[in-house]
Amino acid sequence: MAGIIDRRVCAELEGDFVVFMIGMRVNKPWKFWQWAPVASAMPKMLIELAQKPELGLLHAQTFFAFPNIFVLQYWRSFEALETYARSRDHAHLPAWQAFNKAVGSNGDVGIWHETYPVKGGTYENVYNNMPAFGLGAAGQIKDAVGARQEARGRMKTASAA
User: Fold this and answer.
1) Do strands 5-12 and 17-26 pair parallel, antiparallel, or not at all (unpaired)?
2) Half-sphere exposure of 134 (CA within 13 A, CB side)
3) Highest mean pLDDT among 1-15, 72-86, 103-117, 142-156
4) Which of 107, 40, 116 is nearest to 78 (CA)?
5) Which residues lie across from 62 on neighbouring strands?
6) Domains of the chain
């Protein structure tokens, strides 16, 4: 299978970063005119961010489990994430304003996000028989051998990076 890394590996990312999770929940599927614009807004933002890596998005991956849509994102910093979210020159702010005007708190569509700042070296991960995934797609893949063989060693190795 293409892209599968057929050994134990881990991911390292130099410096601090932010894990940002954002999603929506379709509460009333029959009201497609309410949730379709919300669902279509995120791909536009992700395309914009992929075309402008200087904005700070390191990696994003979308998951579908109807009635939920969830995007896992890795950002260089909270400041980069917040700057993008508040910018009048990018796709997020107009989409956020449109959501509040059209849907707001009427219950048709739920939205959520969670933000986790991560200090360099305060994380651990392992992947086996996986393509680059999650932090592995945002950072650098390293063989999980030697000091990286076990979780405690990976944590120490990451903190030394």
Assistant:
1) unpaired
2) 14
3) 72-86
4) 116
5) 71
6) 5-13+119-160 (no CATH), 17-117 (3.30.70.100)
Q: Which run of H or E residues covers position 27?
A: none
Q: How far apart are CA 53 and CA 157, in angstroms?
A: 27
Cα separation of 122 and 140, whole Å? 16
> Residue 4: is it exposed, middle or buried by C-beta count within 10 angstroms (0-12/13-18/19+)?
exposed
Take residue 113 and report the two structure tokens written for it: 């996000």
pLDDT given at position 29? 92
Q: Per this entry, what is the length of the chain?
A: 161
Rounded CA-CA distance 25/31 in Å is 12
